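dude i think i finally got it to work??
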Amino acid sequence: MLADAYAREARLVRQLQLHAEHFGRYPDKRARLLELAARADGYARSLAAALDRSGAAPPASVPRPHDGRTNWERLRIDLEEVSAAAEAYLGDAYAIEPGHPEIAELLLNLRGQKAADRETLAWLLARSDRAALDRPDDESGPSTDGAPPEVPDAAPYTASFYGAAPE
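look at this
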């Protein structure tokens, strides 16, 4: 349980750092993501210390961070992961509380801190442009031969957005 929580936080640290790199044009948002990464690093250190006290070893590897195509997608992924972590910590705390109240207290404390992280990510997400592409593999820019860029077919996206299956 603690090893899973540690792996989750360690991945989130790296993920938030990677996502912050994409916010070069938005230094205020980048700074907030880096602040969240530093907080997640603190959570991971707390969990590592609890693992050490319990005699358990941290996981040998940490899962790869998730990425998105746009900053909006990245923030959505971060928000979902922070929310999932908070809910997992709550469930784990109540499951482990009878035998290990100190670990349960740590997990409940982390869950409370995740609420503030969730608010920050929701604030950033609400102020992000959902459609702005920012990856270098975005082919919507000018082509090398001077021809105008192709306009992508938005019908599948629009249909799926409104609940209809694309044709």
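The chain has five helices and no strands.
im so relieved honestly
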